[in-house]
Amino acid sequence: MVAGKRMSKAKGKPPILTLSPEHEQQAIDKLKRLFADRFELDLGSFEVAEVLELFTREIAPHYYNRAIFDVQQHLKERFESIESDLWSLEKN
């Protein structure tokens, strides 16, 4: 999905995350294979693009927010470690 371009005319808000056309096609192809192999569903690209858009709009933001939280925690720990290292360098 290209920045600023919706994958389809689905209801609701536009997706928070976007994919390049190549990555969008790869995701569609992988989802088509998943539906065919695991669920014996032969869906077309349009139907699978709708599923991908649903995931992008409704589920991906939760993973994105969790990733942001995890990075914040990691940086907080790292900054505390750096601060501790700096205090150890302080001269009396």
Structure characterization notes:
The protein has 92 residues and is mainly alpha-helical. The chain has one domain (21-89). Helices cover 70% and strands 0% of the residues. The protein is built from two helices and no strands.
Tell me briefly what this model is.
This protein has helices spanning 21-39, 45-89. It is mainly α. The longest helix is centred in the C-terminal third of the chain and has 45 residues, at 45-89.
Please give the structural blueprint.
Layout (H helix, E strand, L loop, with lengths): L20 H19 L5 H45 L3
Pfam family, one: DUF2164
InterPro entries: DUF2164
Protein name: DUF2164 domain-containing protein
Which terms would index this structure?
92 residues, mainly alpha, 2 helices, DUF2164 domain-containing protein, DUF2164
What overall geometry do the principal axes of the alpha carbons give? rod-shaped
| SSE order, one letter for each helix or strand | HH
State the domain count.
1
Low-pLDDT regions: 1-9
Radius of gyration: 21 Å
Report the mean per-residue pLDDT as an integer.
87
Can you give the helix content as a percent range? Answer: 55-70%
Count of DSSP helices?
2
Helix/strand-derived class?
mainly alpha
Report, as a whole number of angstroms, the end-to-end distance. 58 Å
- Number of DSSP E strands: 0
> What proportion strand?
under 5%
Q: Largest sheet, described in full? A: none
InterPro entries: DUF2164
Protein name: DUF2164 domain-containing protein
